[in-house]
Amino acid sequence: MVEVRRRLEIPAELERLTEVREAVREVARSCEAPVTCMHDLVQAVDEAVTNIIVHGYRGGPGTIELGAELIGDDIVITLQDRAPTFDPMTVPPPDLTIPPHRRRPGGMGIHLIRLAMDSVRHRPRPGGGNILTLTRSRVAKAKEG
Q1: Measured between alpha carbons, how far is 55 from 85 in angstroms, rounded to an integer?
Q2: What is the DSSP string of 14-81?
Q3: Would you kindly state where each structural domain of the chain is located, as residue ranges?
Q4: Pick the CATH number of 5-137 from 3.50.50.60, 3.30.565.10, 3.30.980.10, 3.40.50.10860
Q5: Would the pLDDT of 100 be above 90?
Q6: Which of 66, 8, 2 shows the shortest CA–CA distance to 31?
Q7: pLDDT value for 1
Q8: CB atoms within 10 A of CB 101
Q9: Least confident of 64-68, 115-119, 137-141
Q10: Residue 37 has pLDDT above 80, yes or no
Q11: Which residues contact 46 (CB under 8 A, 6 or more apart)?
């Protein structure tokens, strides 16, 4: 099996999202992930990094470290920052009974991350900050039901 590892450290600037998305695409291609898996990974990481920049650092200075590796059939993306500790898993799901045109803008990012990933875990970073681990299998799973 091919070994895939990637590290990237960027300043917390929205202009750097293109670089982040390309790094995730590169990892997915290296893992021979299907296109749907690649799209899910790119969307989830883009949403998470945007949230770190906009809500964590509030547009101020900071860095984000992205790590990626293939563990078995799972592509594991780890995002680390030094923003105030915030566990996105504590955010309740959005009320999807409200029609999209009646909802206030925003507020769907964490929901989209949850939908795209097989697992999302948060833990405080030693010394301050956050570690967010996003896991997505590159193997299609049978739907339950």
Answers
A1: 11
A2: GGGHHHHHHHHHHHHHHTT--HHHHHHHHHHHHHHHHHIIIIISTTSS-EEEEEEEEETTEEEEEEEE
A3: 5-137
A4: 3.30.565.10
A5: no
A6: 2
A7: 46
A8: 5
A9: 137-141
A10: yes
A11: 17, 20, 21, 24
The burial of 109, by beta-carbon neighbours within 10 Å (0-12 exposed, 13-18 middle, 19 or more buried), is given as: buried
46 pLDDT above the threshold of 50: yes
Residue with tokens 């999202």: 17
Q: At what angle do helices 109-116 and 35-51 cross, to 10 degrees?
A: 150
For residue 50, is pLDDT > 90?
yes
Give pLDDT, residue 108. Answer: 82
Three-class DSSP category at 110: helix
| Residue 3, pLDDT score | 61
Q: For strand 63-71 and strand 5-11, is the pairing parallel, antiparallel, or unpaired?
A: antiparallel
> Which of these, 64, 29, 72, 61, lies nearest to 45 by C-alpha position?
64
Residue with tokens 């995002």: 79
Task: State yes or no: pLDDT of 145 exceeds 50.
Answer: no
What token pair was written down for 67?
């790590």
